[in-house]
Amino acid sequence: MKKKLVSVLMATAMTASLLAGCGGAADTAADTAESTADAVEETAEEATEAVEETTEDAAEAVEEATEEATEDVAEAADDTDYGTGEIKIWVADNVVDFTKEQFDKFIEANPQFAGYTATVEAVGEGDAASNMITDVTAGADIYGFAQDQTARLVAAGALEEVAPENVDAIKSENAAGAVTAATVGDTLYSYPMTADNGYFLYYDKSVVTDPSTLEGILEQCEAAGKNFYMDLTGWYQVAFFFGTGCTLTYESDNDGNFTACDCNYDSDAGLVALKEMIEVASSKAFQPGSSAGDAVDYAAIIDGTWDADVVKAALGDNYACAKLPTFTGSDGKSYQMSGFNGCKLLGVKPQEDENKLAVCDALAQYLTSEEVQLARYNAVGWGPSNLNAQEDSSVKADEALSALSEQFAFTIPQGQYPGDYWSNAEALAGDVTDKFQSASDDDLKAALATFQETVVGLAQ
Questions:
Q1: Per-residue pLDDT at 148
Q2: Helix or strand or coil: residue 262?
Q3: CA nearest 432: which of 239, 233, 268?
Q4: Could you give the CA distance from residue 454 to residue 382 in angstroms, rounded to a whole number?
């Protein structure tokens, strides 16, 4: 095409030169020049069209080759012989039937795994982790557990790393707190299943007309002769300490060992939090506890989504939910109650058979997908960790989940904590309802110093 352009231009130059030597032929030269210009323009247009056609053909060829390569990879994967086997799955009792149904759908959608069957057993998140740590070999191939068990499970060799091909999708599709909870060191070890493990306020709106402040709630409960329930042990007491600005978090390595602890309870902020706990415990409306099923004659209780149906049955038309209230500290400042936010995770046990491991990974990914998380919510009310599922209209209309979501803005993701942290926090709560009721500020400061030294020492 370039040669053609050059030839035309050379011919044009020669013609112009000849005509310049013949003064009587000026008009002819002008006509010839115009004609030549038209020819050049037409030729350029032809060249441009040819280039565009060639580019389009090349692009189509690349696209077709890419599609063919993708289809070949998919066909190769479908042709893989995954063998046969049985997968043992542990989940909470109320999702056993649901999980069996989902496994059947998984096999139907993935016929290459048709050689596998599943045994789904009712083992709750807490028991599942303990059983796996006790005997990994006899444990389930796939199991649900609470996020605070991740480090222990990794240290026990009970968790396989998430399949590399699933990591990016998990991180981008789920709430950041759930992804953090599924991670130890810099390695993702499990599949986020929910983001509903936290607490908020349930209340009887005929008694508690203003749930915005803790002092107001206690006063209204006292005036009506009703109870206010709150657990002051480790998981719940951080609502006060984190609310005043204290920190208590642990770092762990890739093996699940605790390497450091960041704690500042031995501080002015810690003293304000502890004194507020003591103040709450001194109210005649206060009752220790967080299980609505065990609570009696209450107008307010700090609990989680798992007890929503129980509270609805107890309060009837007066059922209401809200984020946790604020409180006025001993320093005269207002503080928003905080807390942990957590989740349920799905783990895969290490396997000797690589084919079975591939099936388990694919199944775990499916059971925690957007579609299944939303179906699980509709079946049993578990709050999704999947970001798209969280935006579903039915999820957003759920009063308990909405209150929890609002509260999550003031909480921190629950990371990994040593088992002895919880026992020390429980002991602190016992002192709040006992000897701390008459303790001086100096005594309280000394207790906080001892507590901090102990929990920091758990990581050394």
A1: 83
A2: strand
A3: 233
A4: 36
